[in-house]
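Onboarding guide, step 5: your first structure request.
Type a short instruction followed by the sequence, for example:

Predict the 3D structure of this protein.
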Amino acid sequence: MTFAELKTEVFRVLKENSTTPVYWSAQDVEDSLNEGLETISEASEFYETNTTVSLQANQTYYDLKDLAGDGFLRVTRVWNTQTSRWLAPTDVRKLDGAYRQWEKNTGEPQKWFVRGLWHLGVWPKADATSGTVKVYHRSLPAALSATTDTPAFQREFHQGLVRYAAYDLLAQDGETRKALTQYEQYLGFENRLKAYVGGRISVDRIGGFRG
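The system replies with structure tokens like these:
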């Protein structure tokens, strides 16, 4: 469904005239739809994109917020474009246990980890300012704005945005019972999308990744 179709559907659910609405404006509906898009995106992590990171000599950590933007949720995998291999996920505790002075090691990166909320670490750190890694990550998609924009997930889940918007607008109007009914329907779509994304990730892992 396009953004225009989603707005029309929200007005229909609210029993409002989409051309000359009385209780809610078109902007109200747009804002609620985009709030729903952000909510279902964060819950399901359906949207994956990638960011190319240029390796710097003797640098272990890279700021993901600067590289991937405010919509960043979490790293899923990292591809070394020089070796055409996936970096193995690890964590600081494992590195501490396996390598006494791992933060001093240099060479072609073989492992990746996240430290804190925003910092991607690679081990060993590059010994020269050359090469890149491709960082795949879950993120929030851009907000819907143009009338022809469509959510990036399958059409069968688009009604979830409609139900969330209806819930949000009814709640703002104090229609608690009606709002909760819409929210329960929204949760059904959210849970199905989460299950779909979980199944898709499993298939990817079985089939193997490509950089």
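Each response can be followed by summary notes, for example: The chain has a mean pLDDT of 92.
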